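Closing statement on the coenzyme A sub-project.
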Amino acid sequence: MSEPLHFLAVLREDLEAARHRDPAARSMLEVGLAYPGVHAVWVYRLAHRMWRVPSLRLPARLVSQLARAATGIEIHPGARLGRRLFIDHGMGVVIGETAEVGDDVVLFHGSTLGGKTMRHGKRHPTLGDNVVVGAGAKILGPVWIGSGAQVGANAVVIHDVPAGAIAVGVPAQIRLRPAKAAFDVEIDDPAIYI
Ligand SMILES: CC(C)(COP(=O)(O)OP(=O)(O)OC[C@H]1O[C@@H](n2cnc3c(N)ncnc32)[C@H](O)[C@@H]1OP(=O)(O)O)[C@@H](O)C(=O)NCCC(=O)NCCS
């Protein structure tokens, strides 16, 4: 597949991910027009491509800031986000420059993948695949969130979370019982949509 077609396919996957995961979504058209989380991810994918060209880093930041103004979602163009990321509701989401996010991740509004210090270098979290981050949760520092983990609403995570675990509370405590993968959860599952 050519590069432009591959890029369009990735954008389409983002759209489909939102359509499949949000029980309130009634059509692809509605999702494409009315979902700020999808718009923010789309703009990020463009800005990240620009970011990889050193002379385009300032324009990439400006594009990113336009998306922030329009959606309330701030994604640094240097962050590395996987495929089919769904940001639900979106407002107040912050994803820092050195954050890394796997495939099929869900972030709810108010969640932060942030740094604990102002030092340069890797200072933001790394999320595996199928991670769910609840509304208002803060994941701080270069911690690792294993695949299939779930971070509860309003949790503050400052240590690694094993794959499949649940992290809840402030500071977050780890519950080592099997968590449901984002893709395996029924769309009206109360564990995801409280
Ligand atoms: C963390 C979460 C995924 C766990 O869901 P679950 O697998 O159904 O687990 P349970 O509800 O059985 O909770 C397990 C334990 O964690 C506690 N817990 C669950 N969510 C919590 C939270 N956000 N903060 C603090 N404790 C929490 C429960 O009280 C329970 O404790 P107990 O074992 O001592 O009784 C879920 O509660 C959650 O927070 N999801 C995020 C949803 C969200 O942000 N929705 C936004 C919609 S707009």
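The longest strand covers residues 86-88. With this model delivered, the sub-project is considered complete and its resources will be redirected to Aim 3.
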